[in-house]
Each structure stands twice: as C-alpha cells, then as structure tokens.
Fold:
Amino acid sequence: MTEKNNRSIIFLYVAWLASIIATLGSLYFSEVRGYVPCEMCWYQRIAMYPLTVTMGIAVFKRDLAIKKYVLPASIIGGLISVFHYLEQKVPGFAAIKPCSMGVPCSGEYINWLGFITIPFLAFIAFLIITICLLFVKKED
Structure:
C-alpha cells in the first residue's frame, strides 16, 4: 500500500466520520429533541443517510473507487442545504405560502451565534465530505 493510498483511506475515513456525525445529529434533533423535520430536511437526510452506509462499506473494503458514486450525492445534498439555509436567512427568499400540513422550511429550531442553523450544520457536513472525497485518489 502506497503513502498516497494511505492518505486516501484517511480522507475517506474522515468523510465517513462526518456523515456518521451528521446522521446521528439529525436523529438527535428529531428523536431526542422532538424537532419535526421539514420537507427540505428530509431531502438532506435522503442525501446523507446512504452516504453513511456506502462510505462505511468502502472504508472497511478500502474501496477508493467509491468516490464516483458518493461525490454526486454529497454535492447535491450540499446544494439542498444551501437552498434551505437561504430560505431561513434571506427575507423574501422562502416561497410565500400558507401554513398547511407540516413544518415550514423557513422555521429555525436552533440559531446558534445568530447564523448556525440545522441546514447550516448539514451544509458543513456535506462540505467536509465533498472536500475529503476530492482528495481521495485511486492508485494507478
């Protein structure tokens, strides 16, 4: 195993660890704190949860080819997080619609330091995963 390969495994492991923390964090907010996820939160979960399983398998199998499968999901999840964050923080960005069933996506369960919300935390996780995956290189 080459040094480049070892570094790639470490980056894959860090990406997997970030996905585990994000998955457990989202489950903590919904199952322990009782925060009901909005529609955009569900889309972010749909992007994140499979990453946790897929990258976990890749870490144990030392499969560096996984990058081409999980990188698109990470980027898409990050874009959804940015859109959701904009709905929360930019006045007039959220669609004006009457509250019907469910939780509005513009609602903020947490607002740490005036800018850290749940979609912001999800974006940071997707960003860490994406950056780490960009450093994963397959051996030639």
